[in-house]
Structures are given as structure tokens and as C-alpha cells.
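[recover] target loaded
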């Protein structure tokens, strides 16, 4: 096989894989939440913690949302002793690969972050799996930090279910946040530092395309 043909076939396979990923729950113009937290009158930092598969892609998506000031990849759901990548990847620690999103509540709302989470960042209908990754550490979850976040997230899940926004049922767990533990340094901003990594190109780069196309008013070029 000629090198030119190999390049053509590889590009076609990459495009097909990306298209499949986008149709599996990403890039959906889902409705805005009917319930939300009130917008702050002045710059106000708040945090939200989400889990939806590999934290590389989740971090990359939310770092490109206007009003988000910081995103940290990490672990939530287990304890401090097991908040280490090699242990989490066994699927027996209770942890999920997660992100902690710090945002300015005067610029973007918690409900808007939920809209990105469900519409672009991952597929909320696959149980303990995202793309090629399987296990409880890749589960879909919202770790709420207070009763207001719990209320808004629960109402939005119910709203999306009533609207039949997805072909399959939403399996996202709604769990009180026990603690968030930052991941190892080499995981932070992995997609940004390794844009040519085949995993990133196939699984995560299409999410940024979907964010820009589906929610252009929210997209930030960083």
C-alpha cells in the first residue's frame, strides 16, 4: 500500500470516528435549564464538579467556555488514600475521573455549565463507559456542592427526560461531593499539550468542534 493511500485511509477513519462520537450524545442543541442559580451582580468565583469519562476531554471542553476561569482534572467519589491514577484505573476505588470547574457566576451560570456537560462534554446515556473507556471510573456523575446545585441539577435531568432530549435514558448519577482530589501534574491540560495524540484527536478534539458549533455564544478560543 502506498504511503499516500495509507494517509488517505487514516484520515477517513479518523473523520468517521469523530463523526460517530459527535452523534453519540455530543453537539446536541438541548434546551436551557428552566431552573438555575441566580446570576451574581459582581464577579463571584464558584465551583462545580463533573465526571463524564476521561478527564482530558472534559477539562479541554470546559476550559473553552466563556466565564470559566480554571479547570482542574482530578478524582471524586472515593477517599484521599486511593486518589492516584494507577489505583483509580482499577475501577475499585469509588473514584470517577472528574473535573473541578471554577467559574465567574456573574458571567456564566451553573445551569449553563450543566447544558455544556450534557450537550457537548460527554454522553450521559452510557453506563460506566465513554467512547473506548469502560469502568466505574468513567461514569457520568454530577457531584453537587450544596443543596442549590443539587436542586438545579435534578430539575435539569428531569427536564431533559421530559423533552426526550436523548434517545436513551440519562444515567448520570447525582451525588453529594465528599471531596475533590487533583490528579497528577502530567494529566493537567493533557489535550492542550498533546494535540496530536491519536486518543485526543479521535475522542476529544471533536468535542471542541461541537462546542463551537452548538454553543458559539459560549465558546472561548482561550
Amino acid at each position: 500500500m502506498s504511503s499516500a493511500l495509507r494517509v488517505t485511509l487514516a484520515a477517513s477513519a479518523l473523520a468517521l470516528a469523530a463523526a460517530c462520537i459527535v452523534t453519540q450524545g455530543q453537539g446536541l442543541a438541548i434546551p436551557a435549564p428552566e431552573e438555575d442559580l441566580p446570576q451574581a451582580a459582581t464577579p463571584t468565583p464558584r465551583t462545580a464538579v463533573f465526571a463524564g469519562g476521561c478527564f482530558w476531554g472534559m477539562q479541554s471542553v470546559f476550559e473553552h467556555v466563556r466565564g470559566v476561569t480554571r479547570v482542574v482534572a482530578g478524582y471524586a467519589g472515593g477517599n484521599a488514600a486511593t486518589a492516584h491514577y494507577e489505583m483509580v484505573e482499577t475501577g475499585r476505588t469509588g473514584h470517577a475521573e472528574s473535573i473541578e470547574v471554577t467559574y465567574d457566576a456573574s458571567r456564566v451560570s451553573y445551569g449553563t455549565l450543566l447544558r455544556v456537560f450534557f450537550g457537548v462534554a460527554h454522553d450521559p446515556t452510557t453506563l460506566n463507559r465513554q467512547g473506548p473507556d469502560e469502568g466505574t471510573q468513567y461514569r457520568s456523575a454530577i457531584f453537587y456542592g450544596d443543596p442549590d446545585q443539587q436542586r438545579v441539577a435534578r430539575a435539569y435531568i428531569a427536564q431533559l427526560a421530559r423533552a426526550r432530549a436523548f434517545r436513551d435514558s440519562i444515567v448520570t448519577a447525582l451525588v453529594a461531593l465528599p471531596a475533590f482530589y487533583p490528579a497528577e501534574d502530567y494529566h493537567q491540560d493533557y489535550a492542550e499539550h498533546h494535540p496530536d495524540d491519536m486518543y485526543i484527536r479521535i475522542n476529544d478534539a471533536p468535542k471542541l468542534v461541537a462546542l463551537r458549533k452548538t454553543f458559539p455564544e459560549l465558546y472561548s478560543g482561550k
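[recover] notes: Strands lie at 45-52, 68-76, 96-104, 129-130, 133-134, 140-144, 173-176, 180-182.
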